[in-house]
Design a protein that fits this description.
By secondary structure, this protein is mostly helical. The protein has seven helices and no strands. The longest helix is centred in the C-terminal third of the chain and has 14 residues. It is globular and about 40 Å long. The N terminus is likely disordered.
Length: 105
């Protein structure tokens, strides 16, 4: 199950690496503000606009399972607004269903 507490323990070095490699996605923000972004913001932006290298970095920093949990929460059918393009949502639904199966409950 998704654990925000676990995500908040991402090391400062890893956050700095995300800011360095993917910070341009938040071009309007200061470097300090980028370092305080939530994992949800990083996941949405990198999955939507990042390169393959940046997506791999995201999986390394946040974890594949945690990234899948965030993505699934952001794209749940009960959400009124989903910021992902249909193509992006479709691709990552297939990807995460194959690599991070949902827990049957």
């Amino acid at each position: 199950m998704f654990s925000l507490e676990k995500l908040m323990n991402i090391s400062q070095e890893n956050i700095a690496l995300l800011v360095k490699k993917c910070g341009y996605l938040f071009w309007w923000m200061s470097e300090e503000a980028k370092a305080r972004l939530s994992p949800d913001s990083w996941v949405e932006s990198i999955l939507s606009y990042g390169t393959e290298e940046q997506i791999t970095l995201l999986f390394d920093v946040v974890g594949l399972k945690n990234t899948a949990e965030i993505f699934r929460r952001q794209t749940a059918p009960d959400k009124m607004r989903i910021n992902y393009k249909d193509r992006t949502k479709y691709f990552f639904n297939l990807y995460f269903d194959r690599h991070v199966p949902r827990n049957p409950q």
